[in-house]
Amino acid sequence: MPDPAPSQPPPAPGTPLPDGLSRVALWTASAHAREFGRSAPYVRDPWAADFVRAAGFTGGPPGDGPLQRLLPDWAVVRTRFYDEFLVGAARAGCRQVVLLGAGLDTRAFRLDWPTGTHVFEVEDPALLAFKEHVLDRAAPSCGRRSTVGADPAGSWGGELLAAGLDPRRPTAWLSETYLYHLPPRTVESLVRTMTELSAPGSVFGAECVNADAASSSFVAPFLDALSATGISWQWQLADPRDWWARKGWDAEVADLFTLPYVVQRLAPYLPLLTEAAAKCAFLTTGTLNGR
């Protein structure tokens, strides 16, 4: 992966950051900014601190429970997991990469993409405007980057096609954290559009909340604190393989504690991680089946 030059202090923001899920994007950016200061970071994102400063953002997820203390490191290992997934998919032939609910994702700039990769970012136009202002014409590391200013929870398929997506070619899709903030029917509509635009060989990645862990003493207090801010984890699954199979995808759930970087980073939290806590979310990947 490339090691970008250190970022410069950003200019004063020209566009206010939209409300709602932008806070979630800034929580992730804050985690990436702290990570970039480590001697051997798992995620190298030199723009993350710029986003945080330009937004005048302080703080983090609400509350002060064990899950909140773990979340910044969880955000880092989740990002690392999907970084490797997407670059691997692109090297295997998925040279179209679509980030649904891209937020402040900078993968188009910081990953070592194979030649000819086209990264599309589907996101709220106001959030994209803020992001472009802070990036200040930075050069992407992929062959081509296209932003699609559309509500990922609404109608975006036509806009994505107009931006250059070729539905006859395999695509790697990622909705890293976005889906579990949406009502289940909205998730189904989004996934239906994704499926309709996918050629054989297409793959996806998405995190989802484990419905069986949501009421646990580890997760429930955070969900209560989160709900008080107007943000909810609405989409929850007990069996992601079955859910995705019914949508046309062969899905797998990562066994995170077989990954050395996950074990190393989350080791300090092991006394807190009961079985329910350790499986409070699924990092899911999959391949379009039968097409």
Mean pLDDT: 87
**Helix content, binned percent:** 25-40%
Order of helices and strands: HHHEHEHEHEHEHEHEHHE
The end-to-end span amounts to: 32 Å
Structural class: alpha/beta
Overall radius of gyration: 18 Å
Number of discrete helical segments: 11
Shape: globular
User: In the CATH classification, which architecture applies?
Assistant: 3-Layer(aba) Sandwich
**The top level CATH class name:** Alpha Beta
Q: Would you count the extended β strands for me?
A: 8
Low-confidence stretches: 1-15
CATH fold category name: Rossmann fold
The percentage of residues in β strands lies in: 15-25%
Number of domains: 1
Q: What about the largest sheet?
A: 8 strands, mixed
Let me know the CATH homologous superfamily: Vaccinia Virus protein VP39
Summarize the structure.
With about 290 residues, the chain is of the alpha/beta class. It contains 11 helices and 8 strands.
